Amino acid sequence: MRDTTKHQGLRNQLAKVLEAKGIYDIKVLSAVRKIPRHLFIDSSFESHAYQDKAFPIAADQTISHPFTVAFQSQVLEVKPGEKVLEIGTGSGYQTAVLLELNAEVYSIERQHELFKKTSMFLPKLGYRPKRFIFGDGYKGLPEEAPFDKIIVTAGAPYVPKALLGQLKIGGRLLIPVGDKEQVMTLFLRKSPKEFEKHELGDFKFVPMLKKKN
């Protein structure tokens, strides 16, 4: 669990790279500078941890490109104290960013191996979501709804109705939609039945899986 001044320097460089690519949210860039991303990946990849790359993690999943994490976090426009539902805990890096933005985070992971690993690892770094849930992200978390923001960190073939239904009026749902490649799609809930949809470009995610594993 080493985090050195060299790592800090690499994080500062990464934040500059992300800024050059269009990330302007100061709080998101500050989170990138603070969170030790090298601890979230296999130590054999450590020398590449602060490049804008995705890496494999346990259970055939990946830790997303830092740009993707920063972009999703920026688009969500998280305000302190907001209830955020994260679908796909994965390595926990995106979770940590949301917590740095002072959100109240509820995070669902469907892969049991990852759920166990990340739910033990994050608190060691001082990151404590409101709840870690082992479950099916397609169903969301009805007992805690409604949410101010919902973020999906895996490619979904369609937009689950349950997630739209668990969004507050005025809330934002950000989800990559598609099979092999995805279009980052933002839904703004305008009224009980009305949603405004925005497509924000092409991204590549691992697929969002149904049921528990």
What do you see in this structure?
It catalyses: [protein]-L-isoaspartate + S-adenosyl-L-methionine = [protein]-L-isoaspartate alpha-methyl ester + S-adenosyl-L-homocysteine. Catalyzes the methyl esterification of L-isoaspartyl residues in peptides and proteins that result from spontaneous decomposition of normal L-aspartyl and L-asparaginyl residues. It plays a role in the repair and/or degradation of damaged proteins. The protein is of the alpha/beta class and 213 residues long. The protein has a domain of 140 residues: Rossmann fold (3-Layer(aba) Sandwich). The chain has six helices and nine strands; from the N terminus they run H-H-E-E-H-E-H-E-H-E-E-H-E-E-E. The strands form two sheets. A seven-stranded mixed beta sheet has the order 5-4-3-6-7-8-9. A two-stranded antiparallel ribbon has the order 1-2. Strand 7 and strand 8 form a beta hairpin. Helix 1 runs antiparallel to helix 2. The protein is globular.
